Amino acid sequence: MLLSACNLNNGNTDINGLITGNGYRIALNPRDYKGEIDRFEENIKKIIHDIDSKLFDGGEYSEIAGFNRSRTTEWVSVSPEIVMLVNLGKQVYERSEGCFDLSARPIIELWDGASREERTPRQEEVDRVLAHVGMSQVEIDPENHRIRKQDPEIQIDLSPLATGYKISSIASFLEREGIQNYWIKLDNEIKVKGHKADGKAWRVAIDAMKPTKPFTLDEVTLLKKRELEGVSLVATGDYHPFSRVGAQSDILVFNPKTGRPVSNYLRHVAVLDEDPVWAAAWNSTLLCLGEKEAAKVAQVEQLGALLIYEERFDFDQYRSKAFLTAIKRL
Fold first, then answer.
1. I need a surface site. Which of 86, 159, 161, 230 has the fewest CB within 10 A?
2. What is the rounded distance in angstroms from the CA atom of residue 274 to the CA atom of residue 277?
3. pTM above 0.70, yes or no
4. How far is the first Cα of the chain from the last one, in angstroms, to the nearest whole number?
5. Whole domain around residue 151: which residue ranges?
């Protein structure tokens, strides 16, 4: 799923770059500020860097990396944002019956290693990893900003929520500075609010990529550029990539409950919500659940969800009630 902007410039001010692997682009309506772009850009980079210093497990000295290296089952004090994200992740974990799991990274690492060896993991390998996966084994003390493991081997990966949190933090910074009209994109997640310099609403086009066969992608527009104008919402999307594992091709979206790739016909998901972190969490969850269960959960949770799935050698789509309501408001 690709999210793109329509006619983004048109007198708007662009801020874009790359920091710690995150490509970002921000467009502002120049009516909101006077000669402060350098300061805005400096602060935005600082926001991204500060978040990575706490959430990025690939960094040796990051806060979450230190927690993961520890083998204690005692309470560990962490930053408030880590508590908030772990708490949100645990909520979605419980409401999805374990389909969204911030402790599931060892499953991905197992399959990545097996893929490099051109084999499929043995069931005993999967079982060994699953013994140390599950957010039910993580406790949270929000009042005192503490978390702890019941299993010392548990590891928490906040990367599924990190981009959404960066977008939310950048939006909060801009609004504190009096910016009420902005377009923010990091990786494949977007948040928009207000209008462009020409007075027209920001537009976000949701396109998709159609898999014609494994290892080949054809870019097509499965939606006819349904444009989301002037809403303070975020859309996230993913494409199921194909990867050869042993003698077969498996879709690399994993079910944390089984430790194996999912097997369903859901190919694209977009979730609209005012909170980019909430949207990102449910986006990953719906991909895991599959088209039928995802549609049921989207209704129960009142998610603004768009699902694109294979149907009789073609593609069909499902739009939740909340998604249709958001479209009708435009």
1. 159
2. 9
3. yes
4. 22
5. 63-159
